[in-house]
Amino acid sequence: MYKVFTENKAKSFDCKSESELIALFKDYKFIEAAGGIVVHNGKYLFIKRLGVWDIPKGKLDKNESPEHAAVREIEEECGIRQPKLISKLVDTFHTYEHKGKWVLKKTYWYLLESTEKKLNLVPQTEEDITEVKLFDKNQFLTIKSETYLSILEVIQALEKQI
After folding, report:
1. 127 CB contacts (<8 Å, ≥6 apart)?
2. Which tens digits make up the pLDDT trace of 68-78?
3. I want to staple 143 with a disulfide (CB 3.0 to 4.6 A). Which of 26, 52, 53, 152 is the partner?
4. What is the spatial distance between Cα 121 and Cα 99, in angstroms, rounded to a whole number?
5. Whole-structure pTM value
6. Half-sphere exposure (CA, 13 Å, Cβ side) for 133?
């Protein structure tokens, strides 16, 4: 069973494989992205983009692995240096319209760790990120009340691991 998230809802598709799911969306442009939640001293990093809490992520470059893309995007979007991969969290699918064309995006999500003594969090404003902030796990309700359905899926996967 695969879930695909749209702006305000999730729809499940009973497909035997990911390729079968992608075939259902054959008229959509398919994009792969990767990102992750960084833990630092027991707190978890989130970004605010376009007024909504989100997780750093971005499109995979040609021939780039999802793991490498997740690290690169976190570095670019937040100013964290060399976060280390801890584990895979979940993969999500969501659809959106971009420049009159529908897109199906698969995002690979990871849990990472920063061992920097002091973080210099810098939001990548050219990506419409206005805030980078660390949250205790007991503050996740704040994130959950102001985020996308697909991000809720990632947070649920994180909560199962911690």
Report:
1. 49, 76, 77
2. 999 999 999 99
3. 53
4. 31
5. 0.94
6. 15
26 is written with which tokens?
């054959």
Please tell me the CATH code under which domain 2-161 is placed. Answer: 3.90.79.10
The count of other CB atoms within 10 Å of the CB of residue 108 is: 21
pLDDT in tens, 97-152: 999 999 999 999 999 999 999 999 999 999 999 999 999 999 999 999 999 999 99
Phi, psi of 40, deg, nearest 5: -140, 115
